[in-house]
Amino acid sequence: MKKFIAVFLAVVMFVSVALIPASANEKAQGIVTVSDMESVFADGENSLIVFVTGIGQSYSYLFDESYTQEGAFSKGTLQDYENYAPLIAEGKYQSRWNLFNDMGEAFSNPEIIGAIIKVVTNLISSSVTGKFTIKQEDVNTILRNLFKFNLVDEEGNSHPRVVTPRYTVPVSEYPWAKGEDGEMRSEARERFYSSIPCENIAKEKFGENYEDYLYCFNYGAFSYTSKNVEGLHDFIETILANNKVGAKEVVLVPMSMGASVTTAYIDAYPTTAENHLKRVIGIVGAWDGTEIIADMLTQSYCEPMSADLFYNGIIGDLIGEPWGYLVNIALRVAPKQVLRDFIDMALRGLGTELFGKTPSLSNMAPLARYEEVMATDFITSDVVKKEVEDFYAAKSRLHKNIANLQAEGVTFSFIAGYGLPFGACTSDYSFFGFMKSSPVTNSDEIINIDSTAPGTSFVPYGTKFQDTEGRELSPDGSLDISTCYYKDSTWYFYEQKHELEHNNTALSLALNLATGHVTTVDSCDDPNGEYYYPQFNGARNLKRLTWYKEDLQRYCDETGYVLTKEQEAILAEAEAMTKRTVNDVESDEAVMDKVNEMLIEIGVYEPEAEPEFIDTVLNVGLKGLNDVIYLIFGAKGFADFEISNLK
């Protein structure tokens, strides 16, 4: 679905104990009283670890209309925990998503079908005549219907059929239910660890009852930040009153957009007596939003590079070979100006129908570009305008609020990625490369480094500071941390993409910061020490190793296969790699390649098949044709071409 949405957006932009179910958790852990526990926190006082999720980490669920009818529940509505929790646990929902809603119902709506026909017809007509005839309202109708389950009303409420569950219990008490296969499983727990794979790290850190310390504050990516703040406050008050480890304080771990929620939270509740904070650890936190959002809302592209990328880059990346090349060629049927007009119209539609109605997105622009963003006409609701104005006022007080909390003893730490342009690694995000800021940024491919590591100075990725006097430079020379507001408690991962949760070194650092065993850069800079996390580190992505282990375990369970000593040694090597806290991408990839080869040898996976002859011919042929056409026509449509260009 995410790839479909990425393709759609690119084309649109550029050619457009509460309740536990009756079948209770049979895997529940043994009860340990607070008095029996020895604190794993450095100061001897337990705290609760609360992850504040970012975009794509909280799941929302769509339910059948019958659950919204009067009398559907003996008490309350679908939006009440005691009603939705068992339904989610038992899988009684239509669909789920972690970013954009399921669009299946949209295409059964005659209104959207009619709008699509109008847009396509007018696009063809515009391409033939050179006169742009597509209407903004038709584009808006398409977008409004496609994202109807993402949108919230002016009170910040989601669609009545949509639930973004909030579990005010530790992960150890997430609901379980028996599936159709008769096996017990917990949808909530699975979603938590799929988004934040910290299970092994937490188990090692906290011991047998590790899940009693772990909490997750979920919220919809398309939402009202103020409502999320009140939700977070209620969440913290509730879990502190009912926790199993005797905690009186919380450690917030905001990730990505979660930093914007935290920014507003410490502004609304600025003292420890109100917010109950002990520590805050930002993981790739959008403390000052991202230039991507500001560029999208102001329709700022990296000309002329964007045209070049559009005709010879992004579509191929998104759709893949060989058909991406064919689409590249087909796009040239429309004159360049027609496509540009459609891009602008599509962005206006996204701004009006999506960003302008969901403050959480509008709040993701940098503070320095607030006036520029507000000068657009995307936000038409006075309620939303007030919401956005209030948030940016809170953001302007962020560092003052942090300083005040530091004076009360709260520590703030920051974990960031850098060394990439926008949309550099992940094909789903390739369209970010069209944004004006992309060639001059230094980012984790989504958020610029001066947002995730506040105050850090930078030059564009792949370049170095030339005037080095008085600077404290990163190993690659692109960052100056002398200006970082919190340089003694900020860690940097080079060429680390935004989905940093699969960097176990970063998660391990975060949990050791949470427990107070690591406090500053100086406290973990000894290679021979118990906790070694260099301030500048490399990237890591263990996602495929996780898959390999799961698939191998499943294969062994089903077939009874027993690993040889040599195969056990390969897994031991992989395990040793994950324990190293100095990341080396090439070394990590080599180890994971070895595990993959072993799984092929065992029979878990089939060897990668040689491409079919026809696929090879199509790929070579269409790529060659695309390259020749690009060489002749450049970043233009066929109708824009002049014979004189052949000279």
User: Largest sheet, if any?
Assistant: 7 strands, parallel
Strand order of the largest sheet: 7-1-8-9-10-13-14
The percent range for strand residues is 5-15%
**How many helices in DSSP terms?**
24
Low-confidence parts: 1-33
Number of strands: 14
Distance between the termini: 45 Å
Q: For the residues shown, what is the average pLDDT? A: 88
User: What structural class should be given to the helix and strand makeup?
Assistant: alpha/beta
Overall 3D shape: globular
Q: Work out the radius of gyration.
A: 26 Å
Helix percentage:
40-55%
Structural overview:
By secondary structure, this protein is an alpha/beta fold. Among the domains are: 543-602, no CATH class; 613-646. 42% of the residues lie in helices and 8% in strands. It contains 24 helices and 14 strands. The strands form 4 sheets. The chain has a 7-stranded parallel beta sheet, sandwiched between helices. The protein has a 3-stranded antiparallel beta sheet with strand order 3-2-4, with no helix packed on it. Strand 13, helix 20 (504-514) and strand 14 (536-538) form a beta-alpha-beta unit. Helix 7 packs across helix 8 and helix 22 (565-579) packs antiparallel against helix 23 (585-602). The longest helix has 21 residues, at 613-633. The radius of gyration is 26 Å and the shape is globular. The two termini are 45 Å apart. 45% of the residues are buried. Mean pLDDT is 88; it is low at 1-33.
